[in-house]
Design a protein that fits this description.
The structure holds 2 protein chains of 2 kinds. Chain A is α/β, with parallel strands linked by helices. Chain A is 44% helix and 19% strand. Chain B has a 7-stranded mixed beta sheet with strand order 1-7-6-2-5-4-3. Classes of the chains: A alpha/beta, B alpha/beta. Chain A binds chain B through residues 40, 42-46, 85-89, 140-142, 160-164, 167, 171, 175, 214, 217-219, 221-222, 327-328, and chain B through 35-37, 41-42, 56, 58-59, 61-67, 85-89, 91-92, 95-96, 131, 135.
Chain lengths: 335, 158
């Protein structure tokens, strides 16, 4: 069986996973340094880089062992590693490790775009996926609407013109004195708040598919400065509703213009309850299937990188050893 | 010595940034300070426009540094758009070596620059973004590098 080892170190998580050509996950190990970052209200790049150095070896060994492979000489087809986008110091740890293992074991390796990895996540949970697929990819660093014709075929219809959705969540949460990461905290508080309490502007009303969250963030900041004593739950509920409203409005428009068989969520913000409910409803309305990944698959993991690698190693050439990390690698530039 | 320019709207902030590109010379480092949502990234969008950057300028918070190729007659080939929002200690700013990025033909604009001011030394400009009661923004430029650009800043502020 052709197995691929995936390695992911683009942000907080040090992750390794073994996946086969049918996209069955044989192991998936994730070590997060998020507890170290929580105290600072965000990822601290230097901490993340150092944490990856300390954990990459043990994480890879565990992923191989749990997949029933010999960690010293695993019989694998190749290695897939995230080479961008992400924090340069963190990316380099994974990339260097992948090159070292590839040399030691005499197997090819391939650099994978982290965002393309997220697009492969639904395949890990559903082998009978019907294409084409409309995917909303929303995380701390990215926000895109992507039309997928099939595995490895994608067109970016729109993306954020300023902040990523998850970034706006984190910044608003920090502003309100809530914890990090901001998404789960705001989502939890929003359940007990009134979403109409704070009037927030509708943004990006044009008919393209681009997104924007900076204006919403600013509106929340200014409103809470002016109206002291606004219940935090109401602010959270209003902000959450406004973010979901924009995302769902743009998705609806994308679905109207591009008929597809399924609607998928990807990225860490896919854990958001308002977004999951809205996407489920939207898919029902269009008579298509909703693909809501489990939390483990929507957040950063190495199984999705291994899955993308399985595809890339089969269809493209392996990467050369002078491949360097690309901190700002755009999905649209993946060929 | 300090120069000020008032921006009533986000569009004004972009125009102010576009005009500010004419203040810059190769090798300049500009620190942008001010609260969340004060217009720092919006201003950089304008500067990028003025420097002839064709790609989209978005928040650099996630990757901390974004590099944009420029096409202009000013001798500035690269715009480094940096953001130290996530940085908590000065050691980390030193590790990022932002100062070294600004070799010949490049300028750097650093968001949340107040967190890193001491690392860059004195030969920088600072632009502070203040949110006024009427929601307009007052931009104030100062610093030793600003004094060296006094004639261009007089024009920018007028």
């Amino acid at each position: 069986m052709a197995l691929v080892l995936g390695i992911e170190t683009s942000c907080d998580e040090t992750a390794a996973s073994v996946v086969d050509e049918q996209f069955h996950v044989h192991s998936s190990v994730i070590e997060s340094s998020i507890d170290q970052h929580r105290a600072f209200g965000g990822v601290v790049p230097e901490l993340a880089g150092r944490a990856h150095v300390a954990t990459i070896g043990p994480v890879v060994r565990r992923a191989l062992t749990e997949a029933g492979l010999d960690p010293l000489d695993p019989q694998i087809l190749g290695i897939a590693v995230t080479s961008g986008p992400g924090l340069i110091g963190s990316l380099l740890v994974g990339l260097s490790a992948a090159k070292a293992y590839a040399l030691a074991w005499g197997v090819p390796f391939v650099g994978i775009n982290h965002l393309e990895g997220h697009l492969f996540a639904p395949l890990l949970e559903r082998s009978d996926l019907e294409w084409p697929l409309m995917t909303l990819l929303v995380s701390g660093g990215h926000s895109l609407i992507v039309l997928q014709g099939g595995p490895g075929e994608h067109v970016v219809l729109g993306e954020t013109i300023d902040d990523a959705a998850g970034e706006a969540y984190d910044k608003v949460a920090r502003w309100l004195g809530l914890g990090y990461p901001g998404g789960p905290e705001i989502d939890r508080l929003a359940q007990s708040g009134t979403s109409g309490a704070l009037k927030l502007p509708r943004s990006m009303t044009g008919d393209d598919y681009d997104l924007s969250f900076s204006g919403l963030k600013t509106a929340v900041v200014r409103a809470t400065e002016k109206q002291h004593g606004l219940p935090v739950a109401d602010v959270a509920a209003s902000f959450q509703a406004a973010v979901a409203e924009q995302l769902l409005r743009k998705l609806r428009s994308a679905l109207e213009h591009h008929p597809v068989k399924g609607l998928a969520l990807a990225g860490g913000v896919a854990a958001n309850s308002a977004l999951r409910a809205g996407v489920t409803e939207l898919a029902q309305e269009f008579g298509i299937e909703a693909h809501l990944p489990t939390l483990a698959m929507c957040t950063d993991n190495a199984a999705m990188i291994a899955a993308a690698g399985t595809y890339r190693l089969r269809h493209d050439a392996a990467s050369s050893f002078d491949l360097s990390a690309s901190p700002n690698w755009q999905l649209a530039d993946v060929s | 010595m300090s120069w000020q320019r008032y921006c009533a709207t986000a569009e004004d902030t972009i125009v102010a940034g576009e005009a500010f590109s004419a203040v810059l010379s190769s090798g300049d480092i500009v620190l942008l300070t001010g609260t969340l949502g004060a217009g720092k990234t919006t201003f950089v969008k304008g500067v990028a426009k003025g420097l002839g950057v064709h790609e989209r300028v978005t928040s650099p918070t996630f990757t901390m540094v974004r590099e944009h190729r420029c096409a202009n007659g000013l001798g500035i080939e690269t715009l480094h758009h940096c953001d130290v929002y996530r940085v908590e200690s000065l050691d980390e700013v030193v590790d990022l070596a932002l100062g070294e990025l600004v070799e010949d033909g490049a300028v750097a604009l650093v968001e949340w620059g107040e967190l890193a001011a001491s690392v860059f030394g004195r030969d920088v400009m600072t632009i502070d973004f203040h949110v006024e009661d009427n929601d307009g923004r007052m931009l104030s430029v100062d610093g030793e590098l600003a004094a060296a650009r006094a004639a261009r800043l007089d024009e920018w502020a007028s």
